[in-house]
Amino acid sequence: MNVNKVATLRNTRPLNVPSVLHCAKIALDAGAHGITIHPRPDHRHIRPDDVAELATLLKNYPEGRGAEFNIEGNPFFDYMPHIRNMGEGRPTQCTLVPDSSEQATSDHGWELTEEVCGRLGPLVAEMKQLGCRVSLFMDADVSAEQFEIVKRLGADRVELYTEPYARAFEEGGSVLEASLERYAAAAACAGRLGLGVNAGHDLNLGNLPVFLGRVAGVAEVSIGHALIADALEFGMAGAVGRYLAACGFGSPKGDR
């Protein structure tokens, strides 16, 4: 579960309401496998204090139970201090995205040019040395060579950017079918190289089961906007239960 939108709502008033920490705890108690955040330099949603508090919370939900801490961000913009200064609270996974500091949300994956790789390589190595899994945010329609570069950089996974799939799902028909084939091929290519596959952006209760049913080998999905919107109807625990069910983890439960 991505808790950025909880922080966005909180930041509209000078109060700690809703509490990012409390909402994360509800989600974890309802069975969420982990918490994702995407701190940005302007602190428009997640703040530095949130990072530290969530890191402390996650220590009570060790990986043996399935709860992970995933920090997304552009490693070139005020990201690395969150990783370097957290000690035992370091994230399980660092998801590296190429967004600029002024972007409202991530809207494309990496283009791994020689220049970009020259900057990314040492940072990926540092994160790995600190004990973090590294995932690179990638478009599904890039060449196989781009996934090969991900592997050479030393990253562990790719996260497939799924907003184009979400648009295709709304259109349906041959557009949807072509999109599913493209994502399935991208996941298969990554898998052949030994890369794990994550997915995220605009996935929801309607399009998520279809995606997972056709794209083999997806290890993780990170969902924030749609889940928080659904929580307005089902409650936080109820929404988490429905997303777990959509991922194949039993029937929905936890409504309140």
Structure overview:
- This protein is an alpha/beta fold and 256 residues long.
- It has one domain: Aldolase class I (TIM Barrel, Alpha-Beta Barrel), CATH 3.20.20.
- The protein contains eleven helices and seven strands.
- A seven-stranded parallel β-sheet has the order 1-2-3-4-5-6-7.
- α2 packs parallel to α3, α7 runs antiparallel to α8 and α10 crosses α11.
- The relative contact order is 0.12.
- The mean pLDDT is 93.
Assembly classification: single chain
SSE string, helix = H, strand = E? HHEHEHEHEHEHHEHEHH
Low-confidence stretches: none
Supply the number of structural domains: 1
CATH topology: TIM Barrel
> What general outline do the C-alpha atoms trace?
globular
The CATH H-level superfamily is Aldolase class I
Main traits of this protein?
single chain, 256 residues, alpha/beta, TIM Barrel, seven-stranded parallel β-sheet, 11 helices, 7 strands, 45% helix, 14% strand, globular
Give me a quick take on this structure.
The protein has 256 residues and is of the alpha/beta class. The protein has helices spanning 4-10, 20-29, 48-58, 80-84, 114-129, 144-153, 163-171, 173-192, 208-214, 225-234, 236-246; strands at 34-37, 68-73, 93-96, 133-138, 157-161, 196-200, 218-222. It contains eleven helices and seven strands.
